[in-house]
Design brief:
Strand order of the largest sheet: 1-11-10-7-2-3-6
Structural class: alpha/beta
Distance between the termini: 35 Å
Shape: globular
Number of domains: 1
Helix content: 25-40%
Number of strands: 11
Number of helices: 10
CATH class: Alpha Beta
CATH architecture: 3-Layer(aba) Sandwich
Length: 308
């Protein structure tokens, strides 16, 4: 039987993995990480934070420039990071890029009292996308409202929207529990007491409402609410692996403050070595044909002991 989680015994997470794998990840240097590239898994480093977020913003522009009336296309994007969003709006305006045939999918949203968070919820993701990006685009260039797709508790319309246009890129960040969107590890209960779901089983999950791992609650409180964990909802609706595998490319952005030095190393190693494990959801991207990890080099840090 695999060990219990060190942080949440009622859940699966990366602390239930083989200790040798964890030790291998902790030893990786930046040069080692670069050497983990393989066919289908690209690794990019950026030396300045300006270059990092500009490159992330340009993925929106590259995707939207390919959208036409006969072949609409778009990008699925995260909240976390968010620093790229104002850059996207500025680039659209400066390039006079019409978004008439472009699409955008939000990745996830909080669920409060059984409903997706409204646009007046301070931590809301749709609210953030609109305020930091879409409401800043000039009206004559703006994306039609029907081409903006945000996940909802009743997810049928959102799921169907992936058939309306090509999702060229699904962007994401990586949380401390090693998720993309809110694809967290499952609870250790029922059929999953002794082992988490198989990678094949987890990949069948579509957009759905999920309970959030305690690590996810703490991370979002830290990064977005000054540590006030009581303000963070415990449930969310998230794009699923099923929709992720419809994206032609998955691009994950690691600025260094959403997950920690060890976590960034662990998922890189597991994807490179093709070790998918649903206790580490990001590792399931080992089976996606086109994945890119993007690192802000100074944010990569080390796993050496440094007392504070």
């Amino acid at each position: 039987m695999r060990p219990l989680s060190r942080v949440a015994p009622g859940w699966w997470d990366y602390t239930t993995l083989d200790p040798e794998l964890l030790a291998d990840a902790a030893r990786l240097t930046a040069a080692d990480i670069q050497g983990l590239e393989r066919e289908g898994f690209a690794i990019r480093f950026y030396d300045t934070i300006q270059e990092f977020y500009l490159a992330e913003a340009l993925e929106y522009i590259t995707a939207w420039k390919q959208a036409t009336a006969s072949a609409p296309a778009g990008i699925c994007g995260p909240i976390g990071p968010t620093e790229q969003l104002p850059l996207v709006a500025r680039l659209v305006n400066e390039l006079n890029l019409s978004l008439r045939h472009a699409h955008f999918w939000g990745m996830d949203e909080w669920v409060i009292d059984g409903k997706e968070a409204s646009l007046d919820f301070p931590l809301g993701f749709a609210r953030t996308d609109l305020e930091l990006c879409f409401n800043r685009i000039r009206p004559e260039l703006a994306m039609p409202p029907e081409n903006l797709h945000f996940p909802a508790v009743d997810s049928a319309e959102y799921i169907a929207s992936f058939q309306q246009a090509r999702c060229l890129i699904m962007q994401g960040g990586q949380g401390e529990v090693k998720h993309w969107a809110f694809n967290d590890p499952p609870k250790r209960e029922g059929r999953y007491v002794d082992a988490p779901p198989s990678p094949a089983e987890y990949r069948q999950l579509g957009t759905r409402v999920v309970d959030l791992h305690p690590m996810t609650l703490m991370q979002n409180a830290r990064t977005s609410g000054g540590g006030a964990v009581h303000q963070v909802p415990t449930r969310a609706v998230t794009v699923g692996p099923r929709e992720t595998w419809q994206a032609e490319k998955v691009s994950i952005w690691h600025p260094g403050h959403h997950d920690n030095p060890f976590g960034m190393r662990l998922t890189t190693l597991m994807i490179a070595r093709r070790i998918p494990d649903s206790a580490v959801p990001m590792s399931l991207l080992a089976d996606h044909p086109n994945v890119q990890f993007n690192f802000f080099r100074p944010g990569l840090g080390t796993c050496e002991v440094e007392m504070h």
